[in-house]
UniProtKB/TrEMBL annotation:
Residues 150-177 form a coiled coil. Residues 413-429 have a biased composition (Pro residues). Residues 407-429 are annotated as: Disordered. InterPro entries: Band_7, Band_7/SPFH_dom_sf, Flotillin_C, Flotillin_fam. Residues 1-147 form the Band domain. Transmembrane segments: none annotated. Keywords: Coiled coil, Membrane. This is Flotillin. CDD domains: SPFH_flotillin. It holds the Pfam family Flot.
C-alpha cells in the first residue's frame, strides 16, 4: 500500500479516499537499566539514557511510518531492546576498569553497533549517555579501596608534614624569641656590670693607689733579693760545686780505668780458657780417632778370624757329614751283603757272627769270676776242668738261640750271656 509523506506544509485530503495520520518527528528519550557481565565475569548494572528521533530524510520517515504509524508508544520498547542487546555484548568484551575509565568509548561502540538497526527503524540516535554503573558484588568499591587508602595515607602524610613544618616554624619562632630575650638580658647585665664596675673603681681608687705604690716597693725588693741570690749562687759554684765536680770526675775516671782493666783481664782469661778448651777438644778428638782406628783394625782382625773359624767349622761339618754319609753307606752295603749271604748260606754267616762275638761272649760268661778275691779249687785239675766245662756248657746252651736269632734278623745283636751261679765258697784248707 502506497502512502504520501508530507512534512512542513499542508496537503489536500480527499475524504473517504485518503486518511491522514500524523507521525511526530520530535525527540524521544528512553531510560536504560541493563544488567551485564564483564569479561572478568563481574556483574554490573548500567544506567543510561538514549535520546533519539525519527530521521528527517524521507527514507527514515518511511521506515518509521511502516513500523510505528499508529503504534508510536511501541517505539520506546523497541529502542530499549536494541540498545540492551548491544550494551550487553560490548560490556562483555570489556573489563570494569575499562568501563569506568572509557565511558565515551563504550557509548561510541554502542551507537556504532546499533546504528544499522536504528536506521532500519527509521530512527537516528542523537545521544547515548552512561549515567551510572552499579556494582552489586562490591568489586568497584574494593577496587577503590587501595586508591582511597593511598589518598588517605597521602592526606595523613601531608597533614603530618604540615604539622611538622608548623611545629618547626613555631620552634624557630620560640628560639628567636628566646635568643632575643637572652640577648636583651645579656645587654642589661653587661650594662649593670659596667655600672657596678665603675662604682667599684670609684670606691677603690684610693686603696688601689696605695696598693700600686706598695707593689712597686715589693718589685724593687724582689729585684734586690734576686741579685743577692745570684751572688750566693756564684759563690757556691766557686767554693763548693766546682771542687766537688773535680773530685767526682777523678773518682769516675779511676773507676772507669779499673773497670777497663778488669774487663781486659776477664777477656784474656776467657780467651785462654777458650784456647785450652779447643786444645783439649782437639786432643780428645785425636784420641777418639786413634781409638776408632784401633777398634776398626781389631774389628777387621776379629772379622777375619771369625770368617776363618766359620770356614773351618763349615769344613769340619762337611767332613763329618761326609764321614757319617760314608759310614751309613758302608753299613748299608754291609747289611745288604749280609742279607744276600743269609739268603745263600745262612749257616756260614751265623758261624762267622758267633766267631766274631766269641770273645765278648766268653768275657760276659767269665765276668762273675772277676769279683772273686780268692778262689780255691777243690779236686785239683778235675775241679778246674769241671768249672770250665760248666762255663762252656752255658755258652753252648744259648748258641742255638743265637743262631736262630741271626737267621731271623738281618743284623743280629749278641744275646745276653747268662752268668753261672757262683759256686759255693769252699772252706779254707
Amino acid at each position: 500500500m502506497d502512502f504520501k509523506i508530507v512534512t512542513g506544509k499542508g496537503a489536500l485530503v480527499i475524504p473517504g479516499l485518503q486518511t491522514v495520520r500524523p507521525l511526530a518527528l520530535t525527540l524521544n528519550e528512553t531510560e536504560l537499566k541493563v544488567s551485564c557481565v564483564t569479561s572478568q565475569g563481574i556483574q554490573v548494572i548500567v544506567d543510561g539514557v538514549v535520546i533519539y528521533k525519527i530521521g528527517d530524510a524521507p527514507p527514515f520517515i518511511a521506515n518509521a511510518a511502516r513500523r510505528f504509524l499508529g503504534q508510536q508508544p511501541k517505539m520506546e520498547s523497541q529502542v530499549y531492546n536494541v540498545f540492551e542487546g548491544h550494551l550487553r555484548s560490548i560490556i562483555g568484551s570489556m573489563t570494569v576498569e575499562e568501563i569506568i575509565r572509557e565511558r565515551d568509548k563504550l557509548a561510541s561502540l554502542v551507537r556504532s553497533a546499533s546504528g544499522v538497526e536504528m536506521e532500519k527503524l527509521g530512527l537516528v540516535v542523537d545521544s547515548l549517555q552512561i549515567k551510572d554503573l552499579q556494582d552489586p558484588t562490591g568489586y568497584i568499591q574494593n577496587l577503590a579501596k587501595p586508591h582511597i587508602a593511598q589518598v588517605k595515607m597521602e592526606a595523613r602524610i601531608a597533614e603530618a608534614t604540615r604539622n611538622r613544618e608548623a611545629a618547626e616554624k613555631e620552634a624557630e619562632a620560640a628560639a628567636l624569641i628566646a635568643d632575643a630575650q637572652s640577648l636583651s638580658a645579656i645587654k642589661q647585665s653587661a650594662a649593670q656590670a659596667n655600672a657596678e664596675q665603675a662604682r667599684a673603681q670609684a670606691a677603690q681608687a684610693g686603696p688601689l693607689a696605695d696598693a700600686t705604690a706598695r707593689q712597686q716597693v715589693v718589685v724593687q725588693e724582689t729585684e734586690v733579693a734576686k741579685l743577692e741570690a745570684d751572688r750566693e749562687e756564684q759563690k757556691l759554684q766557686t767554693t763548693i760545686r766546682k771542687p766537688a765536680d773535680a773530685r767526682a770526675y777523678a773518682q769516675r775516671t779511676d773507676a772507669e780505668a779499673k773497670k777497663a782493666a778488669d774487663i781486659s783481664a776477664a777477656e784474656a782469661l776467657a780467651k785462654r780458657t777458650e784456647l785450652e778448651a779447643q786444645a783439649n777438644a782437639r786432643r780428645v778428638e785425636l784420641e777418639a780417632q786413634a781409638a776408632a782406628g784401633a777398634a776398626a783394625a781389631m774389628a777387621g782382625a776379629t772379622r777375619v778370624t771369625g770368617e776363618a773359624e766359620a770356614a773351618a767349622t763349615t769344613a769340619r761339618g762337611n767332613a763329618a757329614a761326609s764321614a757319617v754319609k760314608a759310614k751309613a753307606l758302608a753299613e748299608a752295603e754291609g747289611i745288604k751283603a749280609r742279607g744276600e749271604a743269609l739268603e745263600t748260606n745262612q749257616d756260614a754267616v751265623i758261624s762267622q757272627q758267633i766267631a766274631e762275638n766269641m770273645p765278648a761272649i766268653v768275657s760276659a760268661a767269665a765276668e762273675p769270676f772277676s769279683r772273686i778275691g780268692q778262689l780255691t779249687v777243690l779236686n785239683g785239675g778235675e775241679g778246674l776242668n769241671s768249672m770250665v766245662g760248666g762255663i762252656l756248657s752255658q755258652v753252648g746252651s744259648f748258641l742255638p738261640s743265637l743262631a736262630s736269632a741271626l737267621r731271623g734278623k738281618e743284623t743280629p745283636a749278641p744275646a745276653p750271656v747268662k752268668r753261672p751261679a757262683a759256686p759255693p765258697k769252699a772252706p779254707d784248707a
